[in-house]
Amino acid sequence: MRSEVAERADFSQIRYAQCWEDADILLEALDVRPGDVCLSIASAGDNTLALLTQDPERVIAVDLNPAQIACLELRVAAYRTLTHAELLELMGSRPSCRRDELYRRCRVAMSSDARWFWDARPGEIAGGVGSAGKFERYLALFRRHILPLVQSRARIDRLLDGLSPDERKWFYDFEWDNLRWRLMFRIFFSKAVLGRVGRDPAFFRYVDGGIAARLTERVRHVAMTLNAAANPYLHWMLTGRHGAELPCALRHQNFEMIGNNLHRLEWRCRSLDEVLDDIGNDPIDRFNLSDMFEYVSPATYHRSLQRLVRCGRPGGRLVYWNLFAPRHRPDQMANRLRPLDTLARALHARDKGFVYGDFVVEEIL
């Protein structure tokens, strides 16, 4: 896994300054029980921290990218040193003119590596930590330079205002989904532009066909079928901050519980295989695997799946997203892993994330 991904993509920068995977459906899919041991792809840290709301015994965060580990470390320090309102300011969820001061308070609770990383990025701190990633900068380009050409401020506000289901359908079909929207969206979110500006071209190595049409349909679903007013991911895409509804880890009702459970969290800047080697015979109950299989060949995916199952406890669950590359349990693992397809489909229909085309939940036998 490490050799295939790390040799083809740059893992020295913040790729995602926040998690774009809906933690609400993640927690329901994982069904974490008190006392469980969880392994989580760190990413920006939001969904790893959300696992602490379920009272697990241990959460092991893993990431190849030291920049992503630095994102997690800064969040952990913020939960330890800031109030909830101050955390939202630092993240960029709410306006602030004192983020440098808030960071200085967090700094003392971070490792020397994390301090070195963030000390060198005062601009990212001032702009809100949630804006500091390559993908977030890509969305900012769309929001500032493309969106105003196709949608008025009043139309954006109306979409995010909280319409009834019938009103949402009419509004999206007759007001929002115009020819300019479809054209500009398909150009800006094409494989070539998204790969070069928003993600990494290597991440599309195993993706067949175009992606813009699939993303268009996904945005249509979250804007028309779901309630855009309660979607923090869509709010950020269109406005650059969260609305009244926040992602799971940033909600006020979860702030104290996450802070109280931080002693159960550990993080390792290593490959997944290396971490599984370190863990040895200690079984893992729940795996949050993000979209990690998107970037590797089917053969590597199958080998990794077998390794995860061997390290997992019977009855444990693996949860992951597919963006464009289809990844599901192979038939030869039918005696080891059971797809929970009905649950996965029901949860994906409620997924507030606007990028992922598929959601996978599998149970270890």
Task: Explain how this protein is built.
Strands 3-2-1-4-5-7-6 form a 7-stranded mixed sheet. The chain has 365 residues and is of the alpha/beta class. The chain has helices at 2-6, 23-30, 46-50, 66-81, 84-91, 99-107, 112-119, 122-126, 134-150, 153-159, 165-176, 179-188, 191-198, 212-225, 232-239, 252-260, 272-279, 298-311, 341-349, and strands at 37-41, 58-62, 265-268, 284-288, 312-322, 337-339, 358-364. α3 links the parallel β1 and β2 (58-62). It has 2 domains: 2-68 and 254-364, 3-Layer(aba) Sandwich (Rossmann fold), CATH 3.40.50.150; 137-239, no CATH class. It contains 19 helices and 7 strands. The mean pLDDT is 90. α12 packs across α14.
Supply the key terms.
single chain, 365 residues, alpha/beta, Rossmann fold, 2 domains, seven-stranded mixed beta sheet, 19 helices, 49% helix, globular
Question: Topology of this structure?
Answer:
Elements (H helix, E strand, L loop, with lengths): L1 H5 L16 H8 L6 E5 L4 H5 L7 E5 L3 H16 L2 H8 L7 H9 L4 H8 L2 H5 L7 H17 L2 H7 L5 H12 L2 H10 L2 H8 L13 H14 L6 H8 L12 H9 L4 E4 L3 H8 L4 E5 L9 H14 E11 L14 E3 L1 H9 L8 E7 L1
Parallel strand pairs: 1-2, 1-4, 2-3, 4-5
Antiparallel strand pairs: 5-7, 6-7
- Distance, first to last CA: 24 Å
Gyration radius, rounded: 20 Å
Strand order of the largest sheet: 3-2-1-4-5-7-6
Order of helices and strands: HHEHEHHHHHHHHHHHHHEHEHEEHE
CATH architecture of the largest domain: 3-Layer(aba) Sandwich
Q: Looking at this structure, what is the CATH superfamily of the largest domain?
A: Vaccinia Virus protein VP39
- Tell me, briefly, the overall form: globular
What's the β-strand tally? 7
Structural domains: how many = 2
Quaternary: single chain
Structural class: alpha/beta
Uncertain residue ranges: none
